[in-house]
Automatic annotation (TrEMBL), chain A:
Region described as Disordered: 497-518
Protein name, entry field: Rhamnose transport system ATP-binding protein
Pfam families: ABC_tran (PF00005)
GO molecular function: ATP binding; ATP hydrolysis activity
Gene Ontology CC: plasma membrane
Chain coiled-coil ranges: none
UniProt keyword list: ATP-binding, Cell membrane, Membrane, Nucleotide-binding, Repeat, Sugar transport, Translocase, Transport
Automatic annotation (TrEMBL), chain B:
Stretches of the chain forming a coiled coil according to its record: none
Molecular function terms, GO-annotated: transmembrane transporter activity
Record localization: Cell membrane
Protein name: Simple sugar transport system permease protein/ribose transport system permease protein
Transmembrane domains' residue ranges: 45-69, 81-105, 111-131, 151-174, 207-225, 237-256, 276-299
PANTHER family: ABC TRANSPORTER PERMEASE PROTEIN YPHD-RELATED, ABC TRANSPORTER PERMEASE PROTEIN YPHD-RELATED-RELATED
Major site of localization recorded for this protein: membrane
A single GO cellular-component term on record: plasma membrane
Keyword field: Cell inner membrane, Cell membrane, Membrane, Sugar transport, Transmembrane, Transmembrane helix, Transport
Amino acid sequence: MSEYILQMKDVSKTFPGVKALDNVQLEVKKGEVHALIGENGAGKSTLIKILAGIHKPDPGAKFYFEGEEAKINKPIDATLKGVSIIYQDLSLFPNLSVAENIYIGQDSNKKPWKKINWKSIKKTADKALEELEVDIDPNTTVERLSIAQQQLVEIARALAFEAKLIVMDEPTSALSSSEVEKLYKVVDKLSSRGISIIFISHKLKELFRVSDRFTVLRDGKYVGSYQAEEIDEAKLINLMVGREVSYEKNEKQVETGEVIFQVKDFYKQGNFKDISFSLKKGEVLGITGLVGSGRTELAQAIFGVNKPDSGSLKIYGKEIRIRSSADAVKKGVAYIPEARQTQGLVLEQSIINNISLPILNRMRNKLKLLDRKSEVQLAEQYIKSLDVRPALPNLPASKLSGGNQQKVVIGKWLSAQPKILIIDEPTNGIDIGAKTEIHKLLRRLANDGIGVIMISSELPEILAVSDRVLVMRHGRISGELGIQEATQEKIMNYALNSGSKKNPSEALDDTSRISQGV
Amino acid sequence: MKLSKESVLGLIALATFLLLAVIAPGFLSSNNINSMMFQLPEFGLIALAMMVVIVTGGIDLSITYIAALSGVGAALMLTNGYGILPAIIVAILFALACGAFNGFVVSKIGVSPILVTLGTMVLFEGIILAITKGSSISGFSEGYSLIGNGYYLGLVPLSIVIFAVFAIITAILLSKTSWGRSVYMYGSNETATLFSGVKNSRVLMKVYLYASLLAAISAIIMTSRYNSVKVDLGSSYLLQSVAAAVLGGTNIHGGYGKVIGTVYAVMIFQFIRNGLNLLGFHSSLVDVVIGAILILVLAMNFFSDKFKKIAETKNAGKAA
């Protein structure tokens, strides 16, 4: 018997015009947790889709399961070989019960008029949940579960199918830190029982916590596989991008000027309380804190889409009121949301239409009709200055990579010529190259006199870009640090303990969620 | 060369016309062409109204009752001795009041359009019944009947000219104004428009108002042509207008839809209805044929979308 549960050899995949995978290898041992990493666009998803039977590889690829050659032509072939894939945006039936979700697909061969065997459904579910040692009532409907619990249900389903290999695609991206820890334990348990796991994530620290081995892809090519012991973060990053990258410090290049923006006594029940701060010209203000600390709610309150109960705003010393997002645009406040694909962009629409959207009223000619020429010019201007690729103004935003989509959102808001730019998780899900570009851009905007407020969970990013850091905890500002004195430990301490001195290492443990990041 | 959805539909309309010209006796007679031109505008206007609402991802099930109530408004004025212009103004005001009510409940309260307009459909019907006591109002002035029966410059029916004008206005509003752009953007992703400083509720309100305006114009043509108004004025156009909009390429989930597509679809309906009549088909059979064509075209659309999607996933795979 082979020591490998899965061997994929010489996998290539050509899409019209592009070679997405070029002779990629992937070998997963029994019971190991195998990290599959690479920048966005490196070919991870394509490889997984081939494993799942969704895409067909180019001829010449060979698959071996437990040493035996096999063909995977359609999804059911993969399932029968014991492959289960848990996608990022789970694939459960929200209004069915946990037990039904676990069981579903088990008797797909049964004649449709045969009666459902509820007893065996319940037994299957109970057994799978028991194996995971999780406390979920199999009779609850799935929509009432948290994301973390839903993930466990997916894993239980994989167990019910007697999966030997489970692929988890960015499983921790929607989990809180304590949930992440629980997931790690489940992963450990599965691997100790001989089930192999392919773990896809952008968070390197997390990968080092769970993985035994790494396979690195770059630009559709196989870079290599490495034991966790023989490699470290810096090396991994180097392998992924083919060059040494760490966040460059984007230090202040202009003298900080007058106060241009003031938030005073912002309060919204259940969201945030006692929020007062100011922003000076030329400054990038970083706001961080645990997920759920009220950062995003605060930003959206300033922008007018989440109305605060009380509080006031001043721009350049003048008191303003923002009642709606339209108001915010008019008064010179822009907000780039975290959810780029749902809140930031209208995906089906062209880059042009997205960029001109906030300022359609300024795109009109004398007849009050839209002037397509100036719209195209505007889009071309930002495509050029932000280096959006491909530089096709008529391309739907959905066809761009994450980094380029983010550039379009930024372009869209720069076109509105804001005085204040609030940007929420600016580089979430973006590859390292594009991240550094966006960091530089934020600094450049601050130099040009735009007040930049950057919300981020990623502390290295906060430290690399901000001049001053506000830390939020439970809806309040729990600490403020100048960049000279700010360290990850200090920030974490504020994020957790409201500034009181507690053991910081303990604190760190509890916040894997905000400390991690590539 | 790749043809747009709309151009393909235009070719289908042309083909239908040519086919019927060959096989249906009298299809090309000036009499018949004229009668088609008289019939088309009232339905065309309702279809355009429906299309604009569908582009936002909504639907207006009350649209033909708005038209009927608006027609009743005109009829009351005319039968009480007022002139044509006041009657038209009242018809439009009645319709706008209905549209404003729909718009308010949809955009400000946030109830889903299908529920709101289902409710207002019954509501408006009730109001009409209360006013008319279920009978019809008829007997309008000679001048008024010219709107739906007269000729423009003695050449083409006036009503088709009115339709053409409103089709062009609708096309310009949708493709050339910031409101029109916002309508499409809202239909694609209303959260993103909200986060882009678009006044969503104002955009929606105008959509329902504009749809009701088109319904009023249709009502004026219908009342003029029939010389009477009853509670079911134009009610057979309700679901047909949804069909025409969708056949015309409008995405039922919102975000896409063109005036020209809807116009072609309306023409196809008109040609077939008329042609089959000439061929001696029973009217119920005509409905069967139209239904079959609709399903055929939608199935074709579905498959072409599906193939496109498959191609797109491949592209997405490429990117990933």
